[in-house]
Write a structure and sequence with these properties.
Blueprint lengths: L4 E3 L7 E3 H4 L3 H34 L5 H10 L6 H8 L3 H15 L2 E4 L5 E4 L4 H8 L1 H50 L17 H21 L10 H10 L8 H15 L3 E2 L1 H4 L7 H5 L12 H6 L3 E4 L5 E4 L33 H25 L10 H53 L16
Antiparallel strand pairs: 1-2, 3-4, 5-7, 6-7
Helix pairs in contact: 3-4, 4-5, 4-10, 6-7, 7-8, 7-9, 7-14, 7-15, 14-15
Length: 457
Amino acid sequence: MMGGSVLNPRSGNRPRPVQAFVSGGFRLQTSAAKGRRAACGVRSVRMSVMEKERMAQDFKDVDTRVIGALEKLGSRRLTVADVSSVSGTSVQETEKELLLLSQLTGGKLEVSDDGDIVYTFDSNVRATLMSNSLRASIREQFEKAWPVIFYLIRISFGAFLFISILTVFAAISIISSSSSDRDRGERRGDYYDSGPGFGMGFFRFDLFDFFFWSSFQNTYYGPAPPKNELNFLEAIFSFVFGDGDPNRGLEDKRWRAVAATIRANNGAVTAEQLAPLLDPPEEGIKNQSETNVDESYVIPALLRFQGRPEVTADGDIIYVFPEMSKSGLNVDMVRDTRGQYIEEDEWEFSKGTGTQKFFVVALAILNLTGVVTLGGLLGNPAALRGTSPGLIATMQGLFPLLTAYAATYFTIPVFRWMWQSSENVQIRFRNSVRKAAASVRFGLTTIGTRPRSECRS
């Protein structure tokens, strides 16, 4: 430090040599003592910062798609483009997640011979992340438990249908019996033998028992159902709410295919090459001989993989993705996507069998009939004579819930069917356009294409 300088407060901005500043022994000793105290303070501050950073680290997590891509690629020297092409995440998002993962797991950042940044992680990166991040550990445990939790939700919703029917018709039976006993005591025990009387009470319970036991015997106590076939309680939930998005994960699949196409062409592609994987307009596929063709559907790919359009000497447009041409892999991990196109699955109303759907509708009608009848009794003071006030209060409190539950079996499926029918029309249209684009690009039909600079496909 002998050649350095420090700032003298009394002399303006002129620096003073270090040796002149430290010539006074007392001042040096005092400064040293202050320095020691300051160092202790800095150490305590650093400890506090480290503790806070550790607490913050516990609540950090990494996109599971990126972790899955690293596990698939193995412990190699990987670039952002390598991981992005397998995970389906954008270049920016992948880079952010890799930096965070490096911080949480001790990953290494190195420079390749080509001057690109490469990342190296342990082979068991998921376990390392779980041990270093509380949030990641909780997320991992929740993902393992969620299938069981959701299964319980589905069967609970179905089981409540039987509980609702039992509750409604038991209340109807008690109210009707109490009213009959007050007015005609001699017929107290004849309720179930009085023929149709109050809507065939004996038949209702017999029908309930038939549905209940047959469904449980076939599902739980009898032969196991075929693989992927719903049990009856699951079929009830499926009838009302459906079975989830049939195209779950389609976006990740789409972007992985787009990335593979870009990398297979060394980072330069035409719109026609990406059209089967994106959502091109129908007019652009049919009228590619025209000079002005709408290629705006390529923009999402440009933003996701940091691409840019360029014009060739022949006046054609190509899309260049410099980041996607970088790779730290020593083996060819690129998939061949020629002739492939993204195909969406149509929405299915329910995966339940025809027999299961019939029984669900029958039970729903039975339950709704019972709820309507119970509502009529609760609104008729004459019918409630002789009935326990506690039972009346309980049923009046439960009646809104029972009504809402009974209504879901008709309102939700009807609106869901209407929406799914409209959505399936759009899905069929998009699939046909992408299929036509694949046919045009790879010569599967006689439709011509607009001249383009040749790119490997």
